Amino acid sequence: MSEVDDNFYKRADAHINLSNDQLSSATRGKVSASMMYSMARFGAWISACECKSQNEMKEAKAETVKYFVTEFEKMLTENFDDYIQNFDKYMK
Predict the structure, then answer these.
(1) How many independent structural domains does the chain possess?
(2) Is residue 60 part of a domain?
(3) What dihedral do alpha carbons 71, 72, 78, 79 form, nearest 10°?
(4) pLDDT by residue (tens digit) across 50-80?
(5) 28-49 vs 8-22: helix axis angle to the nearest 10?
């Protein structure tokens, strides 16, 4: 990732901490699914905020979905590679 602001990781850690707290009452799979759903919902809301009409949002849908999927794939790949390289350290 490039050009992240000073609070990027603080915000991300806050979301991760919330998810970790939820593990006391739900499985990892359920917490993960809820977190993905919330990001999808938030992404749709962000996109709606940028549009002036329902039609404009409809026209932007494919490009916007492609953007979010591509960015998620990059972030997941980066973090997956980090966990592979640091597996023993992270999973102790």
Answers:
(1) 1
(2) yes
(3) 150
(4) 999 999 999 999 999 999 999 999 999 999 9
(5) 140
